[in-house]
Specification:
alpha/beta; Cobalt-precorrin-4 Transmethylase, domain 1; 504 residues; 5-stranded mixed β-sheet; Rossmann fold; Methyltransferase, Cobalt-precorrin-4 Transmethylase, Domain 2; 4 domains
Amino acid sequence: MANVYLIGAGPGDPGLMTIRGKEILETADVVVYDYLANKEFLAYAKPGAEFLYVGKKGGDHTLPQDKINQLIVELAKSGKVVARLKGGDPYVFGRGGEEAEELVEAGLTFEVVPGVTAGVAAAAYAGIPITHRRFTPSVAFITGHEDPTKDESSHDWVAYAQSKSTLVFYMGVKNLPDIASRLMGAGMDPETPVALVRWGTRCNQQSMVSTLEKVADEAARRKFAAPSIIIVGGVCELAEKLAWFEKRPLFGRGVVVTRAREQASDLSKLIRDMGGCVYEFPTIAVSQVLDDEPLEKAVLGLAAYDWLVFTSVNGVKFFWDKLAELFLDARALAGIQVAAIGPATADELKKRGILPDFVPEKYVAESIVDGLLERGVAGKRVLIPRAREAREVLPEELAKAGAVVEILPVYETTLAQEDPSEILEALESGSIHFLTFTSSSTVHNFFKLVDPEEIRRRRGDLKIACIGPVTAKTLSGYGFEADIQPEDYTIPALAQALTQARQG
């Protein structure tokens, strides 16, 4: 086992982190990370892991490189397993080689985990293949920001200009006028296509294509800044034809996800897959009920019930946790009919070997009541594992129909202790375009954390999406009408409704 792992985190898209890199983050004691390493990767770290930010942004160094080297050595010598998380690839303009040399000098063991470098990934996400038989036989990765302590440039500008290679410059946007001038001065055609890609592979990616002669002026006019990759060569002509990432339906749109942290991933993934920028702002925290004696009693007495009705994924999870705690499994439900509100709840049951006997067409309590009444619920004993606080429509209507209903609280939701500053800053900058609510609880708790006036002031540029009519009704109590509401009250349908609203 190594003392230190130099991990390439890739250029930013969470999907480009390697499996090996993720495995190490899950076991490391401390994570030392850079400005260009996506902070979302920190979620992979084990509970209790220490995070140390040592990023360098536009010349503003949190720590100079020699101090970073010293920090890593000291951490490793203290007996901690260190994950050094670097943007892109550690050995491609990432100064990973220097850090590795320091580790060798200190007698420490290390492992290098290569990452997807921005020169490849950012170009691909902008529709540019850096090699193509019709345009070039080779590619060159070049620093656009040489070591400032060197007396002379190491660049052979004539060789660059006369080669047929695609030239990919890293960290060169500040020096773009000089780079373009030197290439033209060395004989490169001023009409050579040049592309810039900023924040490549991320939802806020920007790209442009110009010519060597005009690119510096156009980049300045469009305010291109670091971090940007510069690509020089005929392959840049393919950018418009092969563009795919920036054509995604929610590309660049900021979406607030207010679900509990444990549940946010499915909606967040759908939004990211559509190119959106996710702002996870969990407004509710979910936990098992403290007094679980009634739950244990019900589980041990399952044979007395005719129906089990699950109204949420959480209900299934916490109910099964109790089964497992009592050394029981799906066999404990033998002879009991099971209903689920919605496909997500049904899928959660299927994972546990239970195929629901009934899933309503509309995923609200009223529809499941109608379906159960058709199946002759009168006189039957019905157990409903659910949240401590929930709508009473389902148990009340079933009781009216003659069912013997028992409500079984298996979990409870509380106000999440989230800092709203990031959301407020994003709202102020105009980075957020959609606000999503997936339950009445998320609405109530959001407005406990964020003053409704903050939303009202930006209402013209902000669309609010609710998963269904019950949530929309709760929203109206705060003086807002839902702009978006899917026909099917599901997470996939909600995500799809966002894309339709964007296109509309």
